[in-house]
Amino acid sequence: xxxxxxxxxxxxxxxxxxxxxxxxxxxxxxxxxxxxxxxxxxxxxxxxxxxxxxxxxxxxxxxxxxxxxxxxxxxxxxxxxxxxxxxxxxxxxxxxxxxxxxxxxxxxxxxxxxxxxxxxxxxxxxxxxxxxxxxxxxxxxxxxxxxxxxxxxxxxxxxxxxxxxxxxxxxxxxxxxxxxxxxxxxxxxxxxxxxxxxxxxxxxxxxxxxxxxxxxxxxxxxxxxxxxxxxxxxxxxxxxxxxxxxxxxxxxxxxxxxxxxxxxxxxxxxxxxxxxxxxxxxxxxxxxxxxxxxxxxxxxxxxxxxxxxxxxxxxxxxxxxxxxxxxxxxxxxxxxxxxxxxxxxxxxxxxxxxxxxxxxxxxxxxxxxxxxxxxxxxxxxxxxxxxxxxxxxxxxxxxxxxxxxxxxxxxxxxxxxxxxxxxxxxxxxxxxxxxxxxxxxxxxxxxxxxxxxxxxxxxxxxxxxxxxxxxxx
Amino acid sequence: xxxxxxxxxxxxxxxxxxxxxxxxxxxxxxxxxxxxxxxxxxxxxxxxxxxxxxxxxxxxxxxxxxxxxxxxxxxxxxxxxxxxxxxxxxxxxxxxxxxxxxxxxxxxxxxxxxxxxxxxxxxxxxxxxxxxxxxxxxxxxxxxxxxxxxxxxxxxxxxxxxxxxxxxxxxxxxxxxx
Lengths: 473, 178
Fold this sequence. Notes:
Chain A is α+β, with helices and mostly antiparallel strands. Chain A has helices at 42-45, 54-59, 66-81, 87-119, 130-136, 138-159, 179-206, 211-216, 293-299, 306-319, 328-349, 400-403, 405-419, 427-440, 444-447; strands at 4-13, 17-23, 29-36, 168-169, 172-173, 223-228, 240-244, 250-255, 264-267, 276-279, 289-290, 368-375, 378-386, 392-398, 454-461, 467-472.
């Protein structure tokens, strides 16, 4: 008799979700659904607020990636003001965004996912966490703390606090960088770089043991979307939208942020609050694409910094020009950490970085504005409309985790079909289903604009919908 | 350790990005100031920063939530005082508890850690953790607003007095319980 397994809540991700696995008569997984069960509605309640409040208001969507929302929101507001912000403000915003990448990627890699790598997918869940990591490899745990602290400290130095800094404003930033703070950050870079390089060396050496996972963790052809600069280099703050397919064929490039709707449509399903963006020219659901670290590396031609480009070359040598396994999101994160540290150093070494002219001021000059930047988890789009008084009348947010919704759902199905036997459920099987979600490092608080942690639950149902079993954490 | 220390008093926002080697006591007030009484830890920390701004041995941090990277900072302190709202304490009253390092069963691997788990991480990863106390302020009203209820607002002075008293308490030799 066909049955269904539900994983609820999903652990070690941000937000609340559950997974339902539908089993066929043979006890094998026939279908899978990833349900996001939280809703908050930021898009609605910001209506009526003055545009100047939007960056700080939108940053409250998430305690993990507030900086990302600050960036996209401020850029949308820049567009409403129709200002070109001072060059040094662009550089300072980029430094903060890169620091956010380093700290967020460090959290994802070291704290959330490395227990799976180090302790194994079948390890006791009581051990398979950061404490198990500390016991098994304290040096790696210390490196994780240090690298995350590095990113957080830079955000605090620039923005005044680690979480929800209000330093990024429409028109630029509200305070220039001082010599002392620049030197503090520069002094910390060598150790951060050394940790990043040591970690990627360790991860590459251990990759062979994950071959079955690499081949089955959301490993399928899809499109990849990211922004890229005019030379198709990695730029996580500014650029135009670009889409490539599994063969690196460029389907779209140089698409202005304001024209995002020509590429992206959004579908809804009645069993989840998370929408399903898709590549519009291909329709839904055929237009499945991925965003985030792996997608960015697949979209760009190069990173533009020497150490990251060296690692990118090796990455492509091992896995091809457009790798398709989502397990490689982890590898891509480490390359992006290196890129972030190198890029910050370059920006901080520039002659004009202490320029005090950091903000352009203007009244609203347009009724509609779009801001696009890359968040650690992928492309982030804020689209605003205002009235004659500069008050918000419309907001549409397309968040990284949302972009990946189709791919995550398909990845769950693939993993479940390969690893889950409905007749003999084990903890390790269920953890693999969760782990494929962790590859994407989803932030469901962001993607439904909701608040909270993300435990997971898996349920088992028969063909008639009768609940047979539930596994919770 | 990672970023060079900021001179005291030059910290921004939440109270400086790091500590100097000379600072021996770390005060961490945390919570969400947009959820009514949950902000008591942050507001108390802001008051304490004004009070101890010239003291080179005291560092005050006002935080949204305790995060893992604080383990490094804690490991280099002799004493730590955490300040947070609590539903387990009568409204407007204080409960002071000596903390021992220990794993956080509720969220062992996420971005948020309990004070005991942070102390545990400091001890396990960096070899040392401070003597620590939690000042829990009884709170009931967590509605969406950026002000404290009258009973909790009235408790701020008690928190400041309690912190001063703890700072006068001689610490036993060595660091940390457990």
